[in-house]
Amino acid sequence: MTAGRELRVFYSTAYAPVSQPALQRLALAAGLLARRGLAQLQAPAAVTRAALHGLHCERYLDAFFDGTEPLASSQGVPWSAVLRDATLAMLGGQIDGAQHALRTGVAMNLARGFHHAVYARGSGFCAINGLALLAHAMPERRIAVLDCDEHGGNGTEEFAAKLDNLHAVSIFGTRFGCYGGVRSWAFPVRVREQGFDTYLDALHQAVEIIAGCRPDLLVYQAGVDCHSNDPKNQAGLSTRELFQRDLFVFKSAGLLQLPVLFLVGGGYQRARRVAQLNLNTVAAAHAALGLRRRGSE
Ligand SMILES: [Zn+2]
Hints:
By secondary structure, the protein is of the alpha/beta class. It contains ten helices and eight strands. It has one domain (8-289): Histone deacetylase domain (Arginase, Chain A).
């Protein structure tokens, strides 16, 4: 389904406005991807207010669009129209990326999944839950989320209990309120104490669960804040172990013939370091799925 294809990566300059230093790592990663011929970049259309209707509660959506405080800044970053519009652009990339993955087998959105946002508010630097958005926007599709960020996907877990086409598996070093629940599974693993085999075992279990859910689409959040040098990490994965993680997920998607949309997740080291770790994830997708570099036969 994917062999010989170029990787389509959804990204636009609207994702990383210069006034938002924390988002500059996305611009760096996009530049590296293009220069190295690893992907074809495509700018998505921003998601509309109508597309978000019913995903979060109306009071919160109104506040997010209008800037009404304190709800507008409940994600933990001061609200601004620029940041709102960057979020809407990234959420547009979620939907366009998911549709591209369903058509061709694979796509990437160069954005975070915003997995901490819950129904009534934002949280943990996440304003609108872009993982739950896919289940909300495509009710006829079964969506499985594999979230391998340092932090558990508590928001996605809450949404999984509400949306019967959303299944969420989190493997994390920091629980962040993620305990498993209805259509949700939680695997806390700290590699420094428990060893990488324990992490691999959690990945195997996660893939088994996901296969059992018979999804139409796998959404893989390849967070790199679980890297051993990241200031927020508890999981303690080395660069090589992160690559093995990514390789395992993409190979599993290939074996299951499961379309996969992947995302970068968190990362809090220097922007250039985070962008390089994100590129390693793309390299793993290339290796596992036989993707083609731009300009190659
Ligand atoms: Zn995180």
